[in-house]
């Protein structure tokens, strides 16, 4: 089994940028508007307004390949809309004619400080990549033509963008079985991103490359031409003036979405731990101990985000046995205790995983993590199984409320689970998480047929 690795966007940069920009916006306002306005009211309204405008205008969607002129246009758009919001808000407290000069001066200073900060971070990251070789992605290109040569030159001549180009492969007149040598190279050299010229590849080669990228957690992008490869949502990006297509859009790669989901996970898991597990754990512990010898909690290694292993916790529902880490519970399993049947039927056995959520190994909602032995087996047998590891695993998930929880009796069960997990990964929203949590709660109350 190969080691799965993937470069990631910086998960901290965007939230830090939000905090610094909001500090500038609110801090400067102290000198202009807080004499007659409640500072808490101002801070809440203006902060909320700034964030909504930023999300709508994509103000913080600045990547390593973003051009300076694009950054500048984003700043102008953000500041113009923010000025209109500020005028509308301050109109309730002031005669705008009397304070218009102060407002414009305030906006100008905010604009200058935000611009300086944004470009400072942008250029510092570029300097860091060039001088220290950090924050970089290793790339390969499939296909040789003018477009791929232009992309190769872009990577080689612009080290400040943080790409280390390793190799370009020509594919004309090559057979599909020769792709295996290329795939071995990608795994051996720990390549992060694959760029494909669609015109240089056959449909079968594209399918093989897509499957390989999905199953090995590699980012796959295309140089577009007139071919239609898939009827799915595609995202255009520009590296200098070269159009690039991203095949899979993962909402949780966005730092703000990641922050929102993590904040929700911390709040939700804390409430469960304080108001449920605090009193339920001693009761379950007594019942488990009265029926059988052994620990109250069951710990098992599972694969999580980016294929990393972590210890997943549950209330012990079986008599201690050497096969617990190898085989799932089946219907009528003699290893399951009497109290174990009850807590498995009601999903109470899963509640300790809220500590995993609090510690950051899991999320409340996401693809269910599998035992390491099962992950290794399914990764080889089930197409696109590894895509599930692009996000954190969950206590519950879309697959579980759609009839694919519990024992995997046939490959059809795991294929269905993967299908729903991929849909969740590509269509995540907080509203979808809430819907899944509600449906999970209802299933626990009614008792799920496959909970045994």
UniProtKB/TrEMBL annotation:
Residues 261-445 form the Bacterial sugar transferase domain. It is found in: Membrane. The chain crosses the membrane at residues 12-34, 40-60, 72-94, 106-125, 266-288. Its EC number is 2.7.8.31. Keywords: Membrane, Transferase, Transmembrane, Transmembrane helix. It comes from the Bacteria. One of its GO terms (molecular function) is undecaprenyl-phosphate glucose phosphotransferase activity. It holds the Pfam family Bac_transf. It is a multi-pass membrane protein. NCBIfam families: EPS_sugtrans (TIGR03025), WcaJ_sugtrans (TIGR03023). Belongs to the bacterial sugar transferase family. PANTHER family: COLANIC BIOSYNTHESIS UDP-GLUCOSE LIPID CARRIER TRANSFERASE (PTHR30576), UNDECAPRENYL-PHOSPHATE N-ACETYLGALACTOSAMINYL 1-PHOSPHATE TRANSFERASE-RELATED (PTHR30576:SF0). This is Undecaprenyl-phosphate glucose phosphotransferase. The lineage of its organism: Bacteria, Pseudomonadati, Bacteroidota, Flavobacteriia, Flavobacteriales.
């Amino acid at each position: 089994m190969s080691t799965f690795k993937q470069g990631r966007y910086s998960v901290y940069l965007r939230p830090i940028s939000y905090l610094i920009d909001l500090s500038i916006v609110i801090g400067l306002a102290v000198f202009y508007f807080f004499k007659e306005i409640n500072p808490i009211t101002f801070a809440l309204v203006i902060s909320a307004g700034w964030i909504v405008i930023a999300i709508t205008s994509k103000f913080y969607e600045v990547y390593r390949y973003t051009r300076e002129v694009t950054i500048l246009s984003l700043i102008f758009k953000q500041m113009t809309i923010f000025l209109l919001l500020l005028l509308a808000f301050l109109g309730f407290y002031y005669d705008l004619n009397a304070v218009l000069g102060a407002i414009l001066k305030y906006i100008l200073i905010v604009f200058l400080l935000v611009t300086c900060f944004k470009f400072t971070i942008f250029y510092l990251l570029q300097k860091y990549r060039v001088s220290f070789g950090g924050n970089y992605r290793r790339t390969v290109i499939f296909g040789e033509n003018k477009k791929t040569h232009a992309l190769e030159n872009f990577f080689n001549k612009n080290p400040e963008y943080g790409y280390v180009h390793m190799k370009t492969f020509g594919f004309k007149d090559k057979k599909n079985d020769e792709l295996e040598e290329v795939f071995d190279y990608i795994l051996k050299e720990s390549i992060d991103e694959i760029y494909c010229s669609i015109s240089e590849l056959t449909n079968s080669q594209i399918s093989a490359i897509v499957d390989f990228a999905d199953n090995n957690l590699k980012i796959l992008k295309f140089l577009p031409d007139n071919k239609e490869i898939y009827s799915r949502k595609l995202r255009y990006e520009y590296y200098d003036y070269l159009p690039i297509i991203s095949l899979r859009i993962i909402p949780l790669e966005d730092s703000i979405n990641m922050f929102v989901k993590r904040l929700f996970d911390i709040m939700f898991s804390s409430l469960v731990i304080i108001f449920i597990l605090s009193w339920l754990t001693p009761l379950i512990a007594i019942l488990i101990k009265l029926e059988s010898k052994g620990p109250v909690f069951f710990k098992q290694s599972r694969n999580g985000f980016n294929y990393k292993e972590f210890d997943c916790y549950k209330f012990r529902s079986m008599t201690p046995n050497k096969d617990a880490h190898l085989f799932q519970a089946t219907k009528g399993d003699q290893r399951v205790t009497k109290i174990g049947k009850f807590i498995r039927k009601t999903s109470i056995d899963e509640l300790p995983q809220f500590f995993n959520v609090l510690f950051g190994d899991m999320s409340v909602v996401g693809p269910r993590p599998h035992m390491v032995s099962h992950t290794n087996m399914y990764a080889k047998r089930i197409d696109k199984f590894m895509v599930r590891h692009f996000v954190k695993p969950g206590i519950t998930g879309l697959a579980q409320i759609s009839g694919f929880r519990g024992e995997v009796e046939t490959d059809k069960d795991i294929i269905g689970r993967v299908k729903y997990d991929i849909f969740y990964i590509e269509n995540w929203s907080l509203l979808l998480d809430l819907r899944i949590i509600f449906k999970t709660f209802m299933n626990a109350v009614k008792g799920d047929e496959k909970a045994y």
